[in-house]
Amino acid sequence: MIVCVAVVGHQNNPLYIQSFTEADDALKLHHIVHCSLDVIDERVNNPKKSGTTLNEAFLGLLYPTLNYKVYGYLTNTKVKFIMVTTDLDVRDTDVRSFFRKFHAAYVDAVSNPFHVPGKKITSRTFGESVGNIVRSYTFN
Amino acid sequence: MANYLAQFQTIKHSCDRVVAAVEDVCDLWPTVKGLFEEHQPLKRAFLTNKTRNPVLVENLPVEFILTTDARLRSRFPQEQYLFWFREPYATIVLVTCEDLDEFKNILKPRLKLIVQNDEREWFIVFVSKAHPSNDQATKSVKKVYAKLEVDFSSKKRERCCKLDIHGPDTNFWEDLELKITECIRNTLDRRVQFYEDEIRKLSEQRFMPIWNFCNFFILKESLAFIFEMAHLHEDALREYDELELCYLETVNMPGKQREFGGFDSEDDQAALLKPGFKPLTQIVQDDSFREFDFRQYLFACQSRLLFKLNRPFEVSSRGYSFVISFAKALTLHESVLPFCMREVWVITACLALLEATASNHHDGVVAPDVDKEFYRLQGDLYSLSRIKFMRLGYLIGYGTDIERSPLNSACLSMLPWPKPAVWPSLPPDASSEVLEKEKTILQATSRTKHFGIQRKALPLEPSVLLRVANRRRASLSTGNLPEMFDGRQGFNEGSGLEASPRTPSSLKAPPMSRTNSSPGNFESPLDRPMRLAEIFVAAEHALRLTISDHDLLKTLSSIQDFETKYLNLTKGAAENYHRSWWKRHGVVLDGEIAAVCFKHEKYDLAANSYEKVCALYAGEGWQDLLAEVLPNLAECQKILNDQAGYMSSCVRLLSLDKGLFSSKERQAFQSEVVNIAHSEIKNPVPLDVSSLITFSGNTGPPLQLCDGDPGNLSVTVWSGFPDDITLDSLSLTLVATSNTDEGGQALKSSAATVLKPGRNTITFALPPQKPGSYVLGVVTGQIGRLRFRSHNFSKGGPADSDDFMSYEKPTRPILKVSKPRALVDLAAAVSSALLINEAQWIGIIVRPINYSLKGAILHVDTGPGLKIEDSYGIEMERYMETDSDAGASTAETSVEDSPDSPERDSEVLQLSDGKIVFSEWASTVSSILWVPVRALSEKLPRGSSSVTPLKQDILEGMRTVALKLEFGVHHNQIFERTIAAHFTDPFDVTTRVANKCNGGTLVLQVMLHSLVKANLIVQDAWLDLQDGFVHGKSDGRPTSTFFPLVVSPGSRAAVVFSISLEKTMSSGKDLQLQESILNIKYEIHGDRAAGAHKPVDADQSGADTERRDLVFKSAIVLQRPVLDPCLTVGFLPLPSDGLRVGKLITMQWRVERLKDLKGSEAVDQQHDEVLYEVNANSENWMVAGRKRGFVSLSEEQGSRVVISILCVPLVAGYVRPPQLGLPEVEEANVSSNPPGPHLVCVLPPLLSSSYCVPVKL
């Protein structure tokens, strides 16, 4: 299941971070998301290594750890979407479509004229729509 | 074939290099062996790799073995094929012969026999023993060698080479190397081809039941080994990779249930870098190998080759993935493996990989990004082993020692517990250990955070260990589980326990007494659920069985050793991450090191590391994480007595998102700040509080000030403090937008300011500023010894705490100081003249130019000749601006209209000390000040006539008024101007004698020219005549019916007086009046807005009741007419044909005596002579004759004389003729005819015909 989704701004500042665990352990997910920025930075700064993947927004699996997976997605405005899931068998296509929907929701949220770009997203509607997207993706 | 496995292993171990067989035909090998081995290894060998591409192999070692050697003898043919890799790759035939016959008869057949075996790659080395000095021998050796070449070399291939033992051998060794290489290459190709064919055959049967992986493995590894021997490591690696792929494909084939392995002793120590750890025969199982061992074996082979290829980086990267995937495989078999086998294996594998790769890695050999990637992998390996090590530590009860940081929580709480089939149970004699653990658990009190921050600790457990462990015990019913959760907050604070159903009763009951109260449980430890301490002890015992590595075991033996190892791993991970791209990982791990340092009271180290972590989180705005670390840093700083740092940390804590701390905590932060600020700090502490105190200008347009004006600037300051905070001082700098480098001027607010939480409005007194526009700069202030400054400009709202990484510069100007400009204008209202010597209103227009004149003071200082009429007030009216073409009349009406408007717009002001204070209403509108003044002039105006023309003196009536206006808020603005006013008499008087009557009566015409812009009404006029004149028939006044006579502005009027000469006047009498005085009584009807007007006093006293007429006096000079001319001078007519230039004429004057001079006393001498003088313009006239002289004229009346002068006119035109004057006679006594100057016409000269040529038409 998806335990955490996050939107990180182009200065690597968190814009939106939401965990979907029952336990009160959001901070560790903050940590995971924050550290995964290292991987995104590395990929963005070394386009040679990542090869063709930079041509698309989806960054793929960031962390090949034993127990959870971190996926990344980078928009043209260098806003990063990060998703942490505990599902170990995840198809890339599912993640891709998840991010595409997430991106769309984000675009809706920042198109709000009252939203200040670069500031945290506080829109409740955004939170709801992200929640819906997350719930609709239980990868297996 | 699997039977050959053991043999294969031995053979493989025994030979490690390419073998070249030496067929020593002539017993030469002992002689040349040394030389041959000296030239080892082959320096440059071009071999062909599997893809048939040439590869340069450097330093290829070759072993020379005699064919007679036991190693090459007595092998079965089948073995030969199977282990072909060990067979010689080249056969060197060593021969020598000095006799041709011997060669032909003995050697050649023997050689033919040797080389007939096609399968061998061979060549002949002919050794020449002939000494160069022995010509005979050399020659025959040459012949034999030539023959040898003919017999054995072909065009295709040279198979012979000659070694001259005594001669120079430069070419031979190269030749030999080439030939050996050629042989090796050919043999290699053939054998590779053979093995590939075999492998292909086997591969095709891969999915058949008869498939035997061992056979495949032997072939494949043989091939790999061939490549490895030939130093074609890349190819060898590829073979192993293929082998691995094939193995993974077949090992997990369904249907065949194989043993996994991992039950041997020391299996817990990863052998992934030790290919020879176990003999292959040990791990073989049926037709394949045990996965546990074989995969490690394959990886070991691969990594060996990779190290040979000098690619430790790849070992790391492959190693990491291998560890991960292998750990997954271990997870699958966890239930059968020893307890925590997986964890132990991962730790040892990571450590082994780290050790091996680190020793093989040399900085700078590879590209920098590969270097970085390598370090990243090292970091990954370290942190992986660190996680597993922590897990082991937790299981044996060292969890109290593990910091519940987000990192550790993320690592551990998402890592499932080990799942053995049965949880290890408590060994029988462990009750003392259990008690010991129990004690530790009870003693462990969770460290309360500084500031009394209450935070739920993060979990280190994926689920409640107690439950998991007990569930996995076969004999336990889970029904009484809840009773197990007693109040061990010290250890189980995490969310793991939170999820458990904790009953209130169990919380209250002390754990020991409660367990004692149920003795049934205690008696049979196998049946009752284990307590946490028991779980730990059981796990520890189980681990002792699992772990075979003493070092690792030791690290888990005590909490100190555990901590040391933990620190080592953490440091290793952090250091490596720091050298890679993954700085965040490194810094976060630094935080973990800091936690350990903190525990050991190495506060300075801890503070350093915490500082880094805080900087990382703060830099990117991860406030939640920052809120976790920052209190730790603050605590370190407090212990270290770093007051500045501590205060800064407190301020940073305060500036974090308000939701992150409770208000109580925030109040604690604030009180710390205030306490320290007011404590005895030596030096004031500067601190940036930009995220806590923000400020903004008020909304709306900026404050506009004129140059030099002070003002009050009000600024909104947002305080992020939870309580009111008293600032000792607060100041604000303004920065000019035009000039950014110059620090703005600081505005100080009044002494102590109390900032409420949230919005505060602070007003700063603004001294006069330079022109320009200003934005808010910095707010600085002081709280005790704390000097804070804030750069953060908020856009009219509370600080957005997430963007304190970039200060937004305020762009909207808060203050605009305009350039110096005219703020007010003072001007005279009326440009036309006023009446002199009368009290007149002088109008001063005060026109504020977009500037308030509130409370303005006008200083009025009149110049010489002008006096303010103090008795009258100064009138002030609203002045309506009119268009220039509308003229004065509209202004007049508008002034009259204005009383309708409700605003007050006129009043009477009093002048005191030459100052007038403006009223409120006049502060913004243009106004006009009417000041009553009187221009004083002693001088009597003089009339003018043709005889005494009026000399106009402009400055005569000019008076000045110096004005100084003080205005502005603090009367700081001063405007000075001197205005001029023109005063004049009402009339300009011109007189002339209009007619001279016979009776001596003169008609005197007095022309009055109005000089003012007002209607003058002449009521009366009379003349006070000077001596020698008397009034005519009347009383000296014109007929009264003509009055009143209205003289419009600018027009003329005339009054005629008849006067006559006083007959009785005697010349000897004193003259009483030198001049006549013209008196005119008049009224004036004018508007003060236009010019001259009724005098002020007339206005005041009421115009109708008592009219005080004005009297204008003007002096008129009357000259007595020449009544007794003694002499008359007559200009005699000129000739009728006129005057011509150049024509001589005679001018004649007749002088006649009109009076008898005999009786006159005044005449004294030369009465009979008259002095004459001819005055002529010498440019016009040439005069011949005496111009001046006496002519005799009898004293008798009627005597006459004619004076003739010859003249020649010189210019044509109307010119004045020469005049005859009589200098000795007074003018009054001479009557001239014509009386005044006159002109005569002078014609141009006649044409001179002599110069003309007649023109015939």
UniProtKB/TrEMBL annotation, chain A:
One of its GO terms (biological process) is endoplasmic reticulum to Golgi vesicle-mediated transport. GO terms for cellular component: cytoplasm. It holds the Pfam family Sedlin_N. It comes from the Eukaryota. CDD domains: TRAPPC2L (cd14854). Belongs to the TRAPP small subunits family. Sedlin subfamily. This is Trafficking protein particle complex subunit 2-like protein.
UniProtKB/TrEMBL annotation, chain B:
Residues 1138-1225 form the TRAPPC10/Trs130 C-terminal domain. InterPro entries: TRAPPC10/Trs130 (IPR045126), TRAPPC10/Trs130_C (IPR022233), TRAPPC10/Trs130_N (IPR056913). GO terms for biological process: early endosome to Golgi transport; intra-Golgi vesicle-mediated transport. Transmembrane segments: none annotated. Residues 478-525, 883-906 are annotated as: Disordered. The keyword Nucleotidyltransferase does not apply. PANTHER family: EPILEPSY HOLOPROSENCEPHALY CANDIDATE 1/TMEM1, TRAFFICKING PROTEIN PARTICLE COMPLEX SUBUNIT 10. This is Trafficking protein particle complex subunit 11 domain-containing protein. It comes from Microthlaspi erraticum.
